[in-house]
Amino acid sequence: MINRKTWIKLFAAALLAPAASAAIISDGPGLGVTTDWAGVGMLGTASSFSATGTLIGPHSVLTAAHVVQGITGTQARFQVNGITYASSAVAINPGYTGGDDFDLAVVTLSQDVLGVPFYQYNTGALNELTAGPGIKVGFGVGGSGATGAQPALYPYGTKRAGSNTIDMVTTSTTHVTDGLGNPFTVPAGMLLYDFDNHLTGTNGPLGGPAVGATEIDTATGDSGGPMFQFSTALNAYIITGITIGGSDDLSRYGDIANDLRVASYAPWIASQVPEPSSIAMIAAIALLCGHRRRL
Predict the structure, then answer these.
(1) What is the rounded CA–CA span in Å between residue 174 and residue 172?
(2) If exposure means fewest CB atoms within 10 Å of the residue's CB, which of 102, 143, 186, 275 is most exposed?
(3) Every domain of the chain and the residues it spans
(4) In terms of DSSP bridges, do strands 148-149 and 143-144 run parallel, antiparallel, or are they unpaired?
(5) Are 190 and 18 in contact (CB under 8 A)?
(6) pLDDT one-digit tens code per residue, 57-71
(7) CB-CB contact of 274 with 60 (8 Å)
């Protein structure tokens, strides 16, 4: 079966390719609506939005390369807190060639975003496998784990969030099979998490622990969105992954989703962001005091 990333490439004729991967909550369609995580916004062009991005500085947005591929420096648009900001530059990781590895970009906005938090990202100090469940945030289509994505009922454009646990960090090319029988191959530098069905008590194909009713999967429109995990050293949630894609077209129970591991690319991210990371850390702690250990 064609995975989500391949499906996206078949429909990439538009200037902004549709995002490969939004929140499917396991205990009911369209749940998980949130106004929280204020620094996560919609990403697109002047004509439409179809992806997700996250502020990592006053005017720096972290996202996936495949959602800004083909966009010039001033064509990207980022909408957050009800305001749309234009870009002044779009930097795609030079190693990106269309696959999952190096699928990372930083969009520089033409002005600072005021009154909205921005977030620190993992530079390698946080172990994603032992940090506990993370929080996925995105604007993609909703649905349920039983039926999969239902864009007609739950279209792109609503911010949704939920939890999942990192089951695997790939250190080389890795071949897995999801719970629906789909083979899935991912490169090194990926965070993998499966979609457990807590309604039946069935763990996903990677065998990691389920998180219960708040478990989430990703679907069309989530690409470029963050995985947040809690850092006890910083006493705050930080970005550990960026949504890339998954194994099942419909994001049903048993899907295996993959995030790009941010820590593997931290030096390149830092080279694109003019703000010192310490400033981002201070702002995140000050503005996200409510985001603490609620899982």
Answers:
(1) 6
(2) 275
(3) 4-32+122-263, 40-116+266-276
(4) antiparallel
(5) no
(6) 999 999 999 999 999
(7) yes
